[in-house]
Structure formats: structure tokens, C-alpha cells
Amino acid sequence: MRTGIGYDIHRLVEERKLILAGVEIPFFKGLLGYSDGDVVLHAISDAILGGLSLGDIGQHFPNDDPAYKDIDSKEILKKVAALAAAKKFAVTNVDTIILAEEPKIYPFRDKMVEAVAAILDISKDKVNIKATTNEGVGSLGKGEAIAAYAVVSLEEKR
């Protein structure tokens, strides 16, 4: 059994879609990033890579490689899951927390859980997504960015 932790943060900007956990959220701003900026899937990907001692998504998907410009973060997570499978590990649990002043996450939570479970090919009861605000503190609290943490459990397949 192994455990990994991941974190990601991106600035909110106008004229970008807001994508969290593979789900498009109707909002007047989106996350600025070399990819689609999905902080949830990035944090989960980093947690998996960390649990496997394989570095981070910046090493595997560098932001100076044109192949990854505007990549759908679902594709990043699929490739990371394939790396885990190649090392004979399976994701057994995902716990995430999204830090955002707005928009409200709860109305989209079930769709997010379904999306993550589908990408990782695990049951929905092994994925938890929750959200909190930053109580007005810092760039997150001012609504300038959205961040996510993820903890992932991995089990060696025998």
C-alpha cells in the first residue's frame, strides 16, 4: 500500500472555461494554465505520481512542450493511471478538497465524482470531492485563484 498527496493552484481569468474534476462549470472566469487548468485532476495526478515516487506532472507533461498546450487534463490523469498500472499499482481511494470562494462546488459534486471514477476506472464510492472557502484570506480568499489538494491510496496488484 502506498499514499500520495498532490496540490495545484491556478489563477482565475476571463475568457477561459472553468473545468474542475473533468466537469465544465458555468462561471464567468476559468483557470489559466498551459493545459485546461483543471486543478483537481492535476492534484490527483500529482498524488498518484507521488505515491509511486515518479516525480510530478511538470516532469511528465512539461509546460514548454507544445504537445501539452491546452491538453484536456482528463488525458493527463489517464496517462498517469496507465503509469500506475504499468508499475502494477491500482488507485484504491481518492480524497480531494477544492479551495474556492466561488462558484459553489456542491451542485457539481456528483458529476465530478462520476468523472474522476470513470477516468480512473474505479467505483464512485472510492472517490470523495469536497470544497471549502479560504474565508477571504489571500489570493484564494479574494477569488483570484482556485486550488485543490488530493490524497490518493494505491495498492500493489498481485
Characterization of the model:
- 30% of the residues lie in helices and 32% in strands.
- It is of the alpha+beta class and 158 residues long.
- The chain has one domain (2-156): 2-Layer Sandwich (60s Ribosomal Protein L30, Chain: A).
- The termini are close together.
Keywords:
single chain; five-stranded mixed β-sheet; 7 strands; 158 residues; alpha+beta; 60s Ribosomal Protein L30, Chain: A; 32% strand; two-stranded antiparallel sheet
Radius of gyration, rounded? Answer: 15 Å
Count of discrete structural domains? 1
Return the string of H and E elements: EEEEHHHEHEHE
What's the CATH superfamily, by name?
A: 2-C-methyl-D-erythritol 2,4-cyclodiphosphate synthase
Task: Please estimate the helix content.
Answer: 25-40%
Overall CATH architecture = 2-Layer Sandwich
CATH class: Alpha Beta
Describe the strand arrangement of the main beta sheet, using strand numbers: 4-1-7-5-6
Distance between the termini: 12 Å
Number of strands: 7
Report the total helices. Answer: 5
